[in-house]
Amino acid sequence: MAGEVRQLDDRKLAVLRAIVQDYVGTEEPVGSKALVDRHNLGVSPATVRNDMAALEEEGYIHQPHTSAGRIPTDKGYRLFVDKLAEVKPMSAPERRAIRHFLDGAVDLDDVVARTVRLLAQLTRQVAVVQYPSLSRSTVRHIELVALAPAKVMLVLITNTGRVEQRLVDCPGTVGETLLADLRARVNARAAGQRLPDVPGLLDDLPALFEAADRPTVTVVLATLFETLAEQSEERIMLAGTANLTRFGHDFPLTIQPVLEALEEQVVLLRLLGETADAGMTVRIGRENAYEGLNSTSVVSVGYGSGDESVAKLGVIGPTRMDYPGTMGAVRAVARYVGQILAES
Amino acid sequence: MAGEVRQLDDRKLAVLRAIVQDYVGTEEPVGSKALVDRHNLGVSPATVRNDMAALEEEGYIHQPHTSAGRIPTDKGYRLFVDKLAEVKPMSAPERRAIRHFLDGAVDLDDVVARTVRLLAQLTRQVAVVQYPSLSRSTVRHIELVALAPAKVMLVLITNTGRVEQRLVDCPGTVGETLLADLRARVNARAAGQRLPDVPGLLDDLPALFEAADRPTVTVVLATLFETLAEQSEERIMLAGTANLTRFGHDFPLTIQPVLEALEEQVVLLRLLGETADAGMTVRIGRENAYEGLNSTSVVSVGYGSGDESVAKLGVIGPTRMDYPGTMGAVRAVARYVGQILAES
DNA sequence: TTCTGGCACTCGGATGGTCGGAGTGCCAAG
DNA sequence: CTTGGCACTCCGACCATCCGAGTGCCAGAA
Fold this sequence. Notes:
The structure is a homodimer.
Chain A: H1 10-26, H2 32-38, H3 45-57, E1 61-62, E2 71-72, H4 74-84, H5 92-103, H6 108-123, E3 126-130, E4 139-148, E5 151-158, E6 163-169, H7 176-190, H8 198-202, H9 214-229, E7 236-239, H10 251-263, H11 265-273, E8 281-284, E9 296-303, E10 311-318, H12 323-343
The structure holds a DNA duplex.
């Protein structure tokens, strides 16, 4: 039967690879003749045509209309990425340039800003960088400041250089002694700990204070825990939207939902959230859950100081993108950002 | 001579107004017949044609090609905005909606975020909101935290709810007593003061400390002054880029430089910086210094808590925009944001 | 003077027909 | 299984035509 799962032989795979490469380069459907001319496949166009027919049968490529060349489908790109392409490493000068550019950063905001711009430039696509997430980092310091008799400001500083502050309304006047005591105890236990672990280390704290002070302690701790747990505060930085103009011919239709998606931090966060914890994730076309991005691909990867990923970054481009090059750039940038963060 | 400055009579102005209104509505060059049909000008098309010829002579309108309708020039829009149009006030329900939407904000970030989205929605254009600038606000509290023996963290909290922090490397170990003393004195003098005034109020402070502590005090103060003076930290929030897709037919060409401009915070800041301190500023087409925005108009205005402007906001759209409506929306939003800020 | 109706003219854009070429599928022979 | 040949398809470019909106100008009315 034709329905049986047919193993694609090496030459068919080579043809698919060639189609992807050519199409990415020229943006035009690629025909059998052109293929044979540009890649030395060692066979005739007719043979290639047969292979193409088979590839189309299996759903890897597709014809816009009869008597036109072929275009890879999402499935075709998927196979290409999984089996046919190697991540293209950055050249030594490129790596030096990345390193040098990122080295100039002065603080966390700057690191993220530089990273996202760099990534957009290297890939000529839209770049997205998530701020190092609170949940994976550790506490450097927690500060409590009395602003008014019953108002305390809570400042949380993480090892990634991020600072979060919250105002706390206390049930009654808060003495400086109490505050100092609380501050000392909280820091003694929490400093250096990973954020998600902190609540567990502090939950018996109210019991150590006098009954009169307990409501205040409880409220402050509650706010602290809230801050620690806060996922919604995750921030994202974007760059390279102007690269969208290179998308294609059916322009406004494609670009509008993408622009809309890019404005929704939630969408972007979810997008990056789908990145596997280890290794690079490539989502091609329809594989993206968000409908507006159905004709784009997302290449994303985690990065972090040390060996553990604290946040994600990636790029968004047309499904017809240079996957090996993009993946190389994304990987390289992620690696160097990680190094920078580890150093600071 | 034809070169003499000719006063435009009322009817010509009415014709110009009608042309602008129609063109903004239809996006198509408008001809004499259509004009007479849609606005009851009380004269015949032929008369209108004569007026149009005059208006073109003076440079207020322009013909894409012979035998096409007329399109307003930048100069035409300018006259329209200056003399022919009234700012269109928001309706009561609209005002209520604005108020309600902004009232839900929980902190400064949220206020700005909501404002920018609201503005983008109301005007269906790209909205830009500058964070309340440090330089116009007042000090609510300054906090000093010892992080390490010779490292102090400086936190500046303003009345607009903004928080800035800086790490200070001190020349030697910093005792908690010194820090407490310094903290108390700094706050006593600076709290409630406008940021630019603070350095003047503190410059004799080192003299009040013992010689041994002076280097530390000096360094901390220097960092504080730097933070206060910092203009480059001005931040901007953006929304509505997807509205760019409604720009026009010659699409990618127009939109690309605009997207590029929007990514350059510096450009946007300068753009808003050109806003007059009082009243609304409208920059039309070539009036914009930045070349990429030569086919857009920028409507901007200051906003602030109380009667004084602490920052700017505005929208960017095609020169062919609904000026009265846009100006009304911008003004209304600015007013309500000001109120919100004043309350919090 | 200023406005109006009439008129000849221009020109962009839509419509439709033709044509070439790139590309295909199939087939029979190597 | 591969190859060259061949008939076929169909997109897109090119061109000619045509329609109509819009114009400028002019002579006559108000």
